[in-house]
Amino acid sequence: MRLTKRKLKLLNRSTVALLALSGGTMGVGHAQEGAGAPPAATSDQNIEKVVVTARRREETLQDVPVSVTAFTADQLSKQGIPDVVALTTTLPNTTLKASRATNSTLTAFIRGVGQADPLAGFESGVGIYIDDIYLARPQGAVVDIYDVERIEVLRGPQGTLYGRNTIGGAVKYVTRKLAPKLDVRLKATAGNYGQIDGVATASTPVSDTVRIGGTIAKFTHDGYGKNLTTGKGNYDKDVTAARASVEITPSSDLFIRIAGDYTLDNSSPKNGHRLYAGKTSGTPVLNNVYDTQAEMVTALGHKQEVRAYGTSALVEYTINPELSFKSITAARRDKSYAPIDFDSLAVVDMEVPALYTNRQFSQEFQLTYTGPQIQGVAGVYYIDANAYNKFDTILANPVALANTSTFTSGDVSTKAWAAYFDGSYNLTSELSLSLGGRYTVDKREADIFRQVFLGLGGSPEMGNPGAVLYQIQTDLPGLSRRDSKFTPRVALNFKVNPDHNAYASYSEGFKGGGFDPRTNVVGAKVSIATARQGYKPETIKTYEAGLKSAFNGGRITTNTALFYSDYKDVQIPGSVAISTKGDGNFDSFAGYTTNAGKAKIKGFEFESIAHVTNDLTLAGMYSYIDAQYKEFMAVLPGASSMSNVADQRYFQNTPKNSANIRANYDIGMPMLGYNGKLSLIGSWAYKAKTYQFEYASELDQDAYHLWDASIVWTRADGKVRAGVHGKNLGDVHYKTAGYYFPTLGKEGTLTAFYGAPRTVQATVEYRF
């Protein structure tokens, strides 16, 4: 891995500031104590340590020999972090964002590995977990932060420690257990763009062994822009969320929790910003990137809506002081009505009304052993999930009488089971060896159906019973494939001394194959035989070395990791313009999923935190990644055979350089007769150029900087907190996603979606 002078200069700037202000020497390490404002020190020897369960047992961040960053509830509160997407600027080599045209569907990439397509048939490369429950689908995975104890983000393949194998990494959302006495918490937020949020939490014991609790939350704001056609807001938010749980402790050895959650997103459709004028109408580009002229507002007669809910049962039993058993049972469902106006104009040119439904059931059993010489976990996991989507592609065409509505239906079921283990053996008091393995079986079944109707009225399935059928393009029921793989992990951990912890690891990751629900076997590049086979599994082999260090009694911690990955058969879903009549006139689009043969990924991650004084804390992050395709076979325009186009392809959502510097300064300040402290918090974040697809386009985002700041007062007893938070203070307009179909429709589609503009919120929290 080569670090150019420019990259070294950026890294030096990130570390020199910490060195200069800390007055000490910095070493290297990994897994910092959390992004944002770190826990304040009470004395030189009393720096608060964060405990995580990255290896399914409690360990401090500086001791756990894996790549993990943790965010405590206090840190999230002090910085006014609204959801998991807002964490992306402080995480090395990580992209978390809302998918195009949605508020609540998540696109996640870690170290170049992820999945941007939310359709049925495509599984995320980054696992999202709520209390160890894997979310099989990205819809509803942009989780608003409430009722949280901490969030952990693990980088690299996760298979020997987690129920579902995730090839790129994992985001763990850990909720707070109920308090042993009456606990009531209120939080209110008001901000620009009409933001009004409220969260109310209450719990109470009903006996010596039973506690009950619940949270209800509402998150709203007006649009950052306006829909000039409908008069409604664009990029608005209207989300209602609730959670309830019952915790039962029949004895000191047994803990049971029954929990349920519900989320309803009634936000308006989010529409993109056209980057060029209409090809036929000449409609000019709008001045405000958050404005739109989209006219589509319903799908199947429903306004935009995402409804998700789930239930779970956790049983933890301590067999003896060294051995414990855990059972995790969960079921989840979600349903989304999504009217997507691709062209973002007041005419019907390219529109996609869609319906998504998902369901899942999972069961995990695990044993954890913590002995003086051996520690480890072993488990079995099963998931039964179904993802179904149906949608119309309504497309106007420059050729007379060629307007079409293409109906697509994809019904994909997944049944997977796995057995896994991961154990550590203390060879000496300083050296330990970890061995792990996982055997996974993924069985995928699918029904894919696709019809073309004449006109712009849509299909009978989507509400137009009088539609005239033109062509059946795909009718593939009963598709099936079975993929299995054993993936090992081995690691050495060397405790140089109590303050320096070095490790080296090798791990493999695996994600099963599947079927593209948009497959078209008429007028496209996909044969029936290829469609029946589906796309292949992808695999990764990752080598990593890290060092985690503490200096000056723990007042300074530094965290470094070097990694190299050999990534094969990378699953690349996409859509291509096609000619349904074979006349060379592009009048529809279809799915075209390929497996890029080979890729190499290498990178560097540095995180640090310095308690300069008891009142001043600095933290920083710098990451670098070099991700390159080495084999990417494709048919070039005008060619009859496939060529290796790896030198023309890029890793999407993977900026080469990312950096962040954060500062927290506390000032003792009484207020309203109460003692307390005022925290001044500021941060700067940098992201290098980001490609939206595997090819260069006008949707790519050049490098940009973001500035945030907060002023927060906390009462000495911690029961009251009030703050003002400013995000993106430079009001930078940066692209996060988009639609790229410039050859389709009369007007052409090239629309971009943007991150939030400058926002300012005032927040008050009160705990009874």
From TrEMBL:
Subcellular location: Cell outer membrane
GO cellular component, one term: cell outer membrane
Residue span(s) of domain TonB-dependent receptor plug: 61-170
UniProt domain TonB-dependent receptor-like beta-barrel: residue ranges: 254-724
Source species, domain of life: Bacteria
Leader peptide range in chain numbering: 1-31
Keyword Transmembrane: yes
GO biological process, one term: iron ion transport
Topology within the bilayer: Multi-pass membrane protein
Pfam family, one: TonB_dep_Rec_b-barrel
Family according to the record: Belongs to the TonB-dependent receptor family.
Protein name in UniProt: TonB-dependent receptor
Origin species: Massilia horti
